[in-house]
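lol forgot to send this yesterday, sorry. struct tokens for the thing we talked abt
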């Protein structure tokens, strides 16, 4: 079992180079010369090389992640976005006005384990856990949680935005209608060994979900 990932730095300014995202992606994803707006985000240290090679689980201490913050960690060389959703953000995930704009609001496509095929696509509603790779062409979406009338897109509702071709996802990783991405963001196996610990890469007891069975990443 890998040691718990420790926090490397807390970005509070709201702006960071897109390289902060790309270090967690494989070379196949390519580089996008955009500047990401991160409001706010914790950047994590890499797990050790043997853990990544083996695809072993990665632990995260959730006591360090405040409501509204996102953590980016690596599992099987992929970026995993872990978001501590505020109560307001959790309620919005059930809003009929939002659901009417989503391509797969009920998570009908196999982009997640059965145990998170729910309205919040996670084990706990307050914590979102998704693989941060756009299902269109493999770019890294930006974390843009707050609604904004002009940026990063007109009438932005809040969620994840892919700057490559404009795909949009809500804070549960559910894709919007009318964008290039065909599927929701994948959800990796995960569970909570304790109230303050998240383990990514391992199913809860009595589940044998295989991440390789998802439709697209």
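and heres what i got for the seq, position by position
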């Amino acid at each position: 079992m890998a040691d718990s990932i420790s926090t490397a730095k807390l970005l509070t300014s709201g702006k960071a180079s897109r390289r902060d995202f790309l270090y967690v992606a494989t070379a196949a994803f390519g580089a996008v010369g955009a500047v990401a707006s991160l409001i706010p985000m914790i950047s994590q240290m890499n797990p050790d090389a043997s853990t990544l090679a083996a695809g072993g689980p990665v632990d995260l201490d959730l006591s360090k992640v405040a409501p509204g913050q996102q953590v980016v960690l690596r599992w099987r060389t992929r970026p995993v976005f872990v978001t501590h959703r505020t109560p307001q953000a959790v309620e919005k995930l059930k809003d009929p006005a939002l659901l009417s704009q989503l391509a797969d609001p009920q998570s009908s496509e196999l982009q997640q384990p059965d145990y998170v095929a729910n309205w919040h696509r996670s084990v706990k509603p307050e914590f979102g856990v998704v693989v941060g790779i756009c299902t269109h062409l493999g770019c890294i979406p930006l974390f843009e949680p707050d609604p904004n009338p002009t940026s990063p897109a007109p009438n932005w509702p809040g969620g994840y935005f892919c700057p490559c071709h404009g795909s949009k996802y809500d804070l549960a990783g559910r894709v919007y209608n009318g964008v290039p991405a065909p599927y929701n963001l994948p959800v990796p196996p995960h569970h909570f060994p304790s109230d303050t610990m998240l383990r990514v890469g391992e199913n809860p007891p009595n589940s044998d979900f295989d991440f390789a069975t998802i439709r697209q990443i």
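Residues 1-46 have pLDDT under 50 and may be disordered. anyway ping me if u want another try
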